[in-house]
Amino acid sequence: MVEWYDWFAYASFATYFAASFFPKGNATAQLLNAAGVFAVGFFMRPVGGWLLGRYADRKGRKAALALTVTMMSLSALLIAVAPTYAQVGYFGAVVLVVARLLQGLSVGGEYAASATYLTEASPPRRRGFSSSFQYVSMTAGQLVGLGLQMLLQRTLSDAALHAWGWRIPFVVGAVGAAVVFYIRRGLLETEAYEEERVDERRGTVRLLLEHKREAALVMALTMGGTLAYYTYTTYLTKYLSNSAGLSKADATLVGFLALSIFCLLQPLAGALSDRIGRRPLLIMFGVGATLGTVPLLTALRGVTTVGAALALSLVALVIVTGYTSVNACVKAELFPTRVRALGVALPYALANALFGGTAEYVALWFKNAGAESGFYWYVAGCAAVSLAVYVTMRETRDAALSRAERDGDVTQPA
């Protein structure tokens, strides 16, 4: 939760600090610059996926999780103390970029290490349920950020928030990440990893290349899902305030309420996948996102009340749940233990860099060009590509992740 709070805090508070780091201009142009820095972090995620995915396969999931949260704490602290454009010109923006690069490295390894750990540590018939808590914690991180944003909106003036109040969440994130470091030091390593510790080839790119088809599958099935996820989560509040015309406070409230319900849906859908398989949920997402994105985003642009915005946002997030609730275990189930973390990390991070990280930037670019609806079709098209993959890929629910599972020596929960 803390790791992803730090990652998403940038997006949540960009509307307040964008003017502090870039020259004065129209609000959309400043947000576009801030979104560009946000996207930079995503382009570092493949590097983090490669380095930290390899590290997780060679040194263990526990070691990788401790390292990622340390890096995140440092990056949050950098943003908290970054000087403004008025003080040092563009040097403040350079500090932002460095911090986002460090965050990109951290999250690039965090996703795979946590997905692998959750999946390997769970009984086979509970993997969907257990791994769905990755998006529970990711979403909880966003909720903490939005909750703090609402608190600050009600306790500080708008001028104070723009001047210095936006720094508070990054101080909170730096301290929280430091605490989590000590928590993660007490984790137990997974049995599946311990079985493969003697394999010296584990975590190498050469070994990953023996699983090129699985790596390509991870990229393709992530493409539409990550784009839809970032569209209806991190970009949602900006879209509602910058395009629909809701106040920042109302847009934040809609995002908070929608994400709260979305968070509760994850374990329910994950448990369902343990019964019916992962593919049915992925296909549900693919069909819903392909056919529903254009009408949903068009309707959201025209909302005038919190109730209408919340209802439409929930419809979108129910659709997205088909992807978010199962994608962590699906990816982990595609690879053998000795290359599982790297196999999840690198192709997932590449897909995120190309589609998830650029979602906000592409959306604002279309808006700035006067063709905002073009973004709706872009999201729908990416979802259609992923849908084709969901329909043709194999079911992964019954994959054996350890020797004990392959030998049938695993006690299943009732």
The helix count comes to 21
Low-confidence stretches: none
Envelope shape? globular
Q: From the 3D coordinates, which CATH architecture would you assign?
A: Up-down Bundle
Number of domains: 1
CATH superfamily: MFS general substrate transporter like domains
Biggest beta sheet attributes: none
- Average pLDDT, to the nearest integer? 85
Following the backbone from N to C, one meets helices and strands in this order, namely HHHHHHHHHHHHHHHHHHHHH
Strand content: under 5%
Q: Got a strand count?
A: 0
Radius of gyration: 20 Å
Fraction of helical residues:
over 70%
Label the structural class: mainly alpha
N-to-C CA distance: 29 Å
> What is the CATH class?
Mainly Alpha
Q: Classify the fold: give the CATH topology.
A: Growth Hormone, Chain: A
Membrane topology: Multi-pass membrane protein
Subcellular location: Cell membrane
Keywords: Cell membrane, Membrane, Symport, Transmembrane, Transmembrane helix, Transport
Protein name: Putative proline/betaine transporter
